[in-house]
Amino acid sequence: AFFASKLEHESKHCNGKGLQRLGSSAFDRVYTANQNCGHAYPTFLAVLWCAGLLCSQAPAAFAGLMYLFVRQKYFVGYLGERTQSTPGYLFGKRIILFLFLMSLAGILNYYLIFFFGSDFEIHIKTITSAISPLLLIP
Predict the structure, then answer these.
(1) What are phi and psi of 120, to 5 degrees?
(2) pLDDT per position in the chain (138 positions), as tens?
(3) Entry's InterPro entries (predicted)?
């Protein structure tokens, strides 16, 4: 909602009319940042749900909240110069990778239970809970 309202405000500010694609460079930056965030959102939801269901809910929820804050930083950084959005982008990639690895660990644990009868769920939850605060390091 924040991204869409910024896009609408910038469109009306530049053109004086409704939402139009043609506009100033400020409008183009807002429009591009909004599109980038919209395109990354389905991937984020998929790995968030998989990590929460297959591995551990608390670290996945923490990483999900961190990702939302990082996307906000990316969007606001994109409104300035394009180089200001790079830290938010890289930080977001790291969080997506963490969620993906959590999903992979959950799938691996399922197959270890299925084929060998050994359950490493407690170890995986302990490791992911210990690693998730490391996501705060920029």
Answers:
(1) -110, 20
(2) 766 677 676 666 665 555 555 556 777 777 777 788 888 899 999 999 999 999 889 999 999 999 999 888 888 887 776 677 778 888 889 999 999 999 999 999 899 888 888 888 888 888 988 888 888 877
(3) 5_LipOase_AP (IPR001446), MAPEG (IPR050997), MAPEG-like_dom_sf (IPR023352), Membr-assoc_MAPEG (IPR001129)
**Could you say which architecture CATH assigns to the domain 1-106?**
Up-down Bundle (1.20)
Q: Which of 93, 78, 85, 91 is nearest to 3 (CA)?
A: 78
Residue whose tokens read 């084929």: 115
Residues 61, 65: Cα–Cα separation, whole Å: 6
| Distance set, CA 22 to CA 6, 12, 17, 40, 137 (Å) | 16, 11, 11, 24, 39
- Which residue from 24, 55, 45 is spatially nearest to 96, judged by alpha carbons? 45
pLDDT computed for residue 23 by the predictor: 56
The domain limits of the chain are 1-106
